[in-house]
Amino acid sequence: MIKRRAFLFPYTLNNCEIIKFKDLLVNMDIVGVDSLTKELRGKDVSYIYNGSNQGINIGDETIDYDVLLLGDGSRIGDEFDKIYEYAERAAQKGKDIFILYILTRKQREKFEKLCKDNNVGCRIFSGLEVPDKIMNCEYEILNDISIPVIIVSGVAENTRKFEIQLFLNKYFKSAGYNVVQIGSKNFSELFGFYSFPQFMFCDISEAKKIICFNELCKGLEYQEKPDLFIIGVPGSLIPYNNYFTNKFGIFSFEIGKAIKADAVVMALDNAPYEVEGIANINNICRVYFGNEATVFSISNFRIDVEKSIQEKTLGYIISNKENVDKNVKRLKERVKIPVFNLLDYIQLQKLAEYIENDLSDMDIKLL
Fold first, then answer.
1. ∠ CA(247), CA(250), CA(253), 5° rounding?
2. In angstroms, rounded to a whole number, what is the distance separating the alpha carbons of residues 340 and 301?
């Protein structure tokens, strides 16, 4: 099958996984990216996450492509006009538009009209739509899931948990497992697995969401007969503070009540955690997921508290691999649970192997 050439805009920390794991994309190749930040143009795409050179420069609009990937899974704020104008130029050149933003009804209608007027394709990634029979479930009964369940959660935003989900997908499929996966991003379908379901963002009761998510997972188990589930949880485990609530950890609670985890990957930011803090995280994991963390991962992102308070939006300090290595070593000396550096491919491999061995050691059948 011929892959379509895709151009990503605007390129941000929230969609950089599309670049880092571009080999896992289904039916498309990323040929270029652009950013709303002029200062980034001309730099390699790896610049924003402090990684290794990818050979793609930000802002090369001379590249020809078939599809504009528009957005990063967030909502569009004050920059809507700039983003719409960029999409308009692409549509006028005959490029299909795949929208990764979470849109308001008015924004959705405007983009749909733009694509219709220019006779180009329009696809909006707004999360998994589920059958009515799931949403119309009348009984508050939880189904047992008979296969291993791996849950990937994070203590905060930008702990790179979607990268963990992508790596686990690649690892277990390469090992021959039949994997069913629900990703934490609304555009997870780009990588060939299910996006987080739309109903989890709807105005229905928490109890209803828990029952419906359980029904969804049981239905997928019945239909696809997988060897294991991998489920990514949006948001975070706990609020950071009263200003930055991280969605209050509500999704983690709901998913944990809907489906019990056999393994939990807890993604940490690059903060200096102490034993007491890790103990608190594990206590919450036990309450939410039925198990404490199986492994910890550490990303190279850390919340810049002063800047975040001043600008009233989360800002981050991005560290290099060596700095994260030091923090991993430091935490390993304080806790018994394995800790891994997400910037190190070998450690990612060991993280996946540890989970596989841990599940195999339990009274759980893998393959």
1. 150
2. 14
Cα dihedral 272, 278, 280, 284 sign: positive
Cα separations (Å) of 149 from 107, 182, 189, 289, 339? 37, 11, 20, 10, 20
CA 366 to chain centre: 25
| Phi-psi group of 215: left, alpha or beta (phi > 0 → left; psi -120 to 50 → alpha; rest → beta) | alpha
Q: Is 356 left (phi over 0), alpha (psi -120 to 50) or beta?
A: alpha
- How wide is the angle at C-alpha 86 spanned by C-alphas 81 and 89, nearest 5°? 120
Q: What is the pLDDT of residue 146?
A: 94
Beta-bridged to residue 4, according to DSSP, are: 28
Q: Which residue has the tokens 């151009």?
A: 7
| pTM as predicted | 0.93
What is the distance of C-alpha 110 from the center of its chain? 27
β partners of residue 32: 7
Residue 226's pLDDT is 96
* pLDDT mean by block of 10 residues, the chain; 367 residues: 92 93 94 94 90 88 93 92 97 97 94 98 91 78 95 91 97 96 96 94 91 95 96 89 78 95 96 94 95 96 82 83 95 96 95 95 62
20 CB-side CA count, 13 A = 23
- CB of 163 closer than 8 Å to CB of 17: yes
3-state secondary structure of 122: strand
Question: In this predicted structure, what is the pLDDT of residue 181?
Answer: 98
Q: How many CA atoms lie within 13 A of 36 on its CB side?
A: 18
Q: Residue ranges of the alpha helices (H) in the chain?
A: 17-20, 80-92, 105-117, 132-135, 161-174, 206-224, 250-258, 275-289, 305-311, 321-332, 345-361
Would you give the DSSP letter of residue 319?
-
Task: Kindly report the backbone phi and psi dihedral angles of residue 208, in degrees, each rounded to the nearest multiple of 5, phi listed first.
Answer: -65, -45
Q: Are 267 and 159 in contact (CB under 8 A)?
A: yes
